[in-house]
Amino acid sequence: QNEEKWDFVLVSDIHEMGSEKEIKRKKFLDELSKKGFTIKKIEDTKLFYGVRAPQHIFWKYQCLLRNPNSRQRDSAAYQDVPVTTRIRVVHFILQNTVTSDLEKLHDLMKKKVFEAAFPLHKKEQITEILKKKWARWRVLFNEQPIEEIRCYFGEKVALYFAWLGWYTYLLIFAALAGLATIAAGATVFSSSQVSKEICDANNTIMCPLCDQNCSFWVLSDTCTYAKVTHMIDNEATVVFAIFMAIWATVFLELWKRERATVATSWDLYGWDEEEEELALQLINNSQHEPRPYQHSYFRSTIVLILAVLMIMVLIGIAHALVIYRAVAMALFTQSEVNLLSKHADTIAVMTGAVLHYITIIIMTKVRSHQGCLARFLQGQPPLLIKPRTFSQRENNFTVKIFIFQFFTNFSSLIYIAFFLGRINGHPGHYVRIAGHWRLEECHPSGCITDLFIQMAVIMLLKQTISNIMEYLIPWISHQLRKKKKPPKKRSVMLGEEEEAEDPCKRQWLKNYELNEVNVFSLFNEYLEIVIQYSFTTIFVAAFPLAPLLALINNVIEIHMDAIKMMRLRRRMVPRKAKDIGIWLQVLEAIGTLAVIGNGLVIAITSDFIPVQVYKYMYSPCTRGNRTGMDCSTGYINNSLSVFHIRDFEPHTKVLPEFNGVQIKEYRDYRNADDYTYTIQFWHVFAARLAFLILFEHVALCVKLIAAWYIPDVPQKVKNQILMEKHNNLRNGLRWVEPWKV
């Protein structure tokens, strides 16, 4: 049975005898044979070559990477290597075997000499366990079999699922805090003094929302919108923002402890990736010389220029979305359809959010091509210095693509949070796009609801449509590949015996029909969750339901990824790792951005600061009239400025409603005569700045205290490592003792 255990399968089209492709294929297989590989050929509609490495390769691997304190010479010391290690070693040798034409496997695959190379999903006990306990929808809320995942897919994949499971578990607390914030807001849904004033403002006439054929409107028309705004924008939001800053830190610190425990239990704490890669290079070629460390300022300059260009493109896309919202607002407001004209601002925000989601999808496709470009540039030593190790290459790739995706996802949100309604000018002197369409304004209740809608639409679409497509596309692709298989030819001639089918043939065909995977397949899974983590933390003050949506998504995501890996995709090449790599630094950077982002949302986007300034400086309470009065009484009237109709721009055409009144109002702190800023504007501005500095310093201090308070490595793990070192030294001393004088 041993001869039927194959480490890898190579797939090739059937080429003509003597053709260039057939000669190149033969040269590559001959090189493998010289290294002692056993090769088995099966012919179907394609040529399949089973590859099995000789045992001495794995003995070398064990000898080179065994703990130097325990290097025994007896053959009993060589144990059977795990299947994951076999696959990893064989994959490395296949990728680095050079033919007489100086071509490697990836060169031959580019030239269509080989079509595919993959390890096999085999029908084993561990496969059945994973399919039963993990890769099915029925076990949605069961604990993940991390140890079995590690034994089948390797440590890197197991650590991804361990991290995702840990993140999902801690999201429960963030989701409960978000629900509590919404519940606290719901209690003031109808009782908020600010909302009441808007609902009762039947005589407060506001300036038109567009320049042509728009009428004046009454502030009380926006009563429901105001209630929703103040359900999100209240004192509980500030507490929730600080809680989420602490939560992000605690999550990462607790993960570091969990990772240390897992790495120690898997005997990976002292493992070094660079040492392993050097060992594999020497096993493949004993004459191998290591590449020295290099740094190229030219390469860094090229990367920086490309990054700046991509960010400028993304800012341009965000600008296009701003133009769309301004034009849509003008068109919807002038529409004859009552629903569109009445809810023009909300519809413009929602359609803008959908358009933003579509740009995210398009730019994600562009990103996949950009990834190909990045991998191409990294593979060209004459132009750019190639990273020394796969890990270094992956880290470089991760940083570039994450920055690209981050700006793609957040450019529009940044505009809504910090610029919408603040750069649009004022009646009589509006800022216009191309001198025609004026920029949209914030709702009288504030811009935070616009941010809430934008985040809600994007997160819901990403977690429904994107996830459905993420599962359906591989499933449909797998079904189509299965249907391409031609029917078996069976002899109908009487008395002719049918040749027995090779038992490997069915297994290899079944694996070939699965969808292709590559070394960056896991990268895409990480990127998806880290972007979601950004949504869950950075602007969470505006959307407290983000952790709940992330929690629901992750419970489904874990098992969807499991099903894809076990049932729809070829087996991923197992890789060793002792942590989640550069993603940890990315998550820490997001944690810092979350403190800054939420501080800015509360200070700038929210109405929290203007209300507090009014309460303590301008309200009736400051004059001693505190008996039973809400100190925010009169805030709405105080936050509106007066505008004279005669000062409208010449081309403005207003419908003839409320024509008898010559003074209308708008949301700002400006003088009625010359429209300059009032002293209250500067008081609010100073308070916003002071709050931002205070919030960020307090939140960052709390983060630092939490990081200090929770040790990265549990004492139990430290003591375990200490005892292992002590025992190794004691064993070494026993070897020295007989030689002492």
Automatic annotation (TrEMBL):
The chain positions of domain Anoctamin transmembrane read 149-721
Topology in the lipid bilayer is annotated as: Multi-pass membrane protein
Q: Supply the name of the protein.
A: Anoctamin
Grouped into one coarse class, the protein's main location is membrane
Can you tell me which residues the record assigns to a coiled coil? none
Q: Which family does it belong to?
A: Belongs to the anoctamin family.
Q: Which InterPro entries match?
A: Anoct_dimer, Anoctamin, Anoctamin_TM
Can you tell me where the transmembrane regions are?
157-186, 236-255, 301-327, 347-366, 397-420, 530-559, 580-604, 685-710
Alphabetical keyword list: Cell membrane, Glycoprotein, Membrane, Transmembrane, Transmembrane helix
The GO cellular component terms are:
plasma membrane
